[in-house]
Amino acid sequence: MKTYPHFLKLLTLFTLIIFLSACGYKPSSKYARSVVGEKINTNVTISAQDPQNTVLIKDAVDSAIVEIFHASLTDKAHADTTLNFSLTPPRYSAIQYNTDGYVIAYRATIILHVTRESKNIKKNYTAKGTYDFSVVPNAVITDQERFDAIKFSAIKAISSFVAQISAEGSRL
């Protein structure tokens, strides 16, 4: 078998150039972390109308901090940033009807108000999340359907907030 040393040298040089000249891609978590820091404290204002949902929001917020920001949760005294979340009461709107005119699908809408406090900066954000779910015609929304709708729409709202933070970090 015949080898081509010139071809192998060019291939090696080309491969080396490709590896050394990275495209500059950074995941959004890097941008978000540049805004919020490594240590984050979270507070969720408890709703007197719906305290169970507040627990769902707190769990979703904390898991998003760990999974998306790749940051650690800490107490307020040691935190780089404190995130204060408050939840508007969920809204349900009919989005689909059957042929008899009964509602068979709803959209739950959650709006999160977030205040980010870091050193000398205090900034407010608003994030919206929706979740569509179906119901049996002419039926009342069950507690389980309501909890699931709030949970999933809150997760979408938190993702929207993370996107806002990441966009802000990309401009720094």
Describe this entry's structure for a reader:
The protein is an alpha/beta fold and 172 residues long. It has a single domain, classed as 2-Layer Sandwich (Double Stranded RNA Binding Domain), CATH 3.30.160. Helices cover 41% and strands 30% of the residues. It contains four helices and six strands, in the order ααβαβββββα. The protein has helices at residues 5-20, 28-36, 51-67, 143-170; strands at residues 39-44, 72-73, 81-87, 91-97, 103-118, 121-134. The mean pLDDT is 84.
Brief synopsis:
This protein has helices at 5-20, 28-36, 51-67, 143-170; strands spanning 39-44, 72-73, 81-87, 91-97, 103-118, 121-134.
Write the layout of secondary structure elements.
Elements: H1 5-20, H2 28-36, E1 39-44, H3 51-67, E2 72-73, E3 81-87, E4 91-97, E5 103-118, E6 121-134, H4 143-170
Parallel strand pairs: 1-2, 1-3
Antiparallel strand pairs: 3-5, 4-5, 5-6
Helix pairs in contact: 2-4, 3-4
Largest sheet: 6 strands, mixed
Q: What helical percentage do the residues reach?
A: 40-55%
SS-based class: alpha/beta
Query: Using DSSP, what is the number of strands?
Result: 6
Distance, first to last CA: 55 Å
Beta strand %:
25-35%
Task: Name its key features.
alpha/beta; 41% helix; flat; 6-stranded mixed sheet; Double Stranded RNA Binding Domain; 172 residues; 6 strands
